[in-house]
Amino acid sequence: MIFASCAGIVLIGLATWTHGATSPQTTPQTGALDATTSLPPQAVVVDPRSFAVLGIDGPFRESSITQLFNPTNTTPPFFQVFHPDFLKILGPTGTIRAVAANPTFAFAHEAPIWVPQTDEVFFASNDGGALGMSDIDHNNQVSKISLKEVAAAIKTASRGTAPVNVSVTKLDLPEAIQMTNGGTGPYFGNLLLVNSGRGQLPPSVALVNPNPPHNTTVLLDNFFGRQFNSLNDIKIRPGTNRLFFTDVPYAHLASISMGATLNAMVYRLDPNTKVVRVVADGFDRCNGIAFSSDGKTAFVSDTGANGGFLGNNQTEPATIYAFDVDPKTEAFTNRRVFAYVDTGIADGLQLDANDNLYAGCGDGVQVWNPEGILLGKFFLGTTSANLVFAGNKRLVIMAETAIYFAEIAAKANKLSFP
Length: 418
Known about the structure:
A hairpin with a 5-residue loop joins strand 22 (364-368) and strand 23. It contains 3 helices and 26 strands. The strands form 6 sheets. A 6-stranded mixed beta sheet has the order 1-2-23-22-21-20. By secondary structure, it is mainly beta. The protein has one domain (95-407): 6 Propeller (Neuraminidase), CATH 2.120.10. The chain starts with 42 loop residues before the first strand and ends in an 11-residue tail after the last strand. The protein has helices at residues 86-90, 147-155, 250-253, and strands spanning 43-45, 78-81, 95-101, 110-115, 120-124, 142-146, 169-170, 180-187, 190-195, 204-208, 216-220, 231-236, 243-247, 265-269, 276-280, 286-291, 297-302, 319-325, 332-340, 349-351, 357-361, 364-368, 374-379, 386-389, 394-398, 402-407. This is SMP-30/Gluconolactonase/LRE-like region domain-containing protein. Residues 1-20 form the signal peptide.
């Protein structure tokens, strides 16, 4: 989903901290950072106490879509730190930079999958959105970058965190793969993709060999004879081989399908028996999905605030919900609000090894701890729809017309099976 962006608001008298010579310190009663805190060079601290009261004539934001929360007016990309625990995620030398870019093409939208055997990240272009170069008559594009090439480019970069621009390789996939929007894995060595479909070509769950000629197997393309709306995101539940995916009518809202046929719901597919069932409903527009590392908690984002050709409505959901996963039926139960996003919507979701949750949002990637407290942001100044850990300490962020690469301290949560 694409959001317009503009200059951030400025708060007068805002307390910030810069790089110091000592290790991070916090005040005992509040856990807030003090002025001697050592920060990564690209980190900017925004103490929540500094903007808790803006006053009668304060610079209030009127739009969560077009106005970003950047009170220090710092030039992106940078790390926006709201809580000292975010520094544990970043580490003392964390960096972020663009590693591939094409301002005329939203080539890096969703479905990021890291394949460790080749150290490549696969991803899909925007399916029907602005700069996507895809519509009801044209499929979107699945591509890859080499992180070995990224490492070599960074090594020879002219200065510290200067952007680099590595090559993007397009995959030649069969007709069954139409408008890829979500992906995970590897799953038995394959890319696990969910597709929105296009026109009369149905949405589907499919396996694709990451190596040429990219042999493809469609696992599912209907719910008891009814076409899905447009499959959006998918994850493998940890400890199992079962697949959980979201279905939402965004293809209709992007004018690339004939119309909605089902409610917006979350499904489970057993790939062995091909049994498919609904595990959660009651959403406006369910979108991203993820699991805690033990598989007992599921997270689903509701992006009702993004309405495609209906327009954006910031009074509609921009919410991440948490659920318990029933140990027997695997239905999602005990729905509760995990987090509400202050800018745009929460699109793709990922967790790290400590179960901190990362979401692609209207200003970059936002990160919450397991209690739902916003720790900080990978602030890009533009929309990110998804992201993926490329093993430990490497985060690859899709940002439509660019890909960002962060070298941090956090460790990855396993997404592959087996």
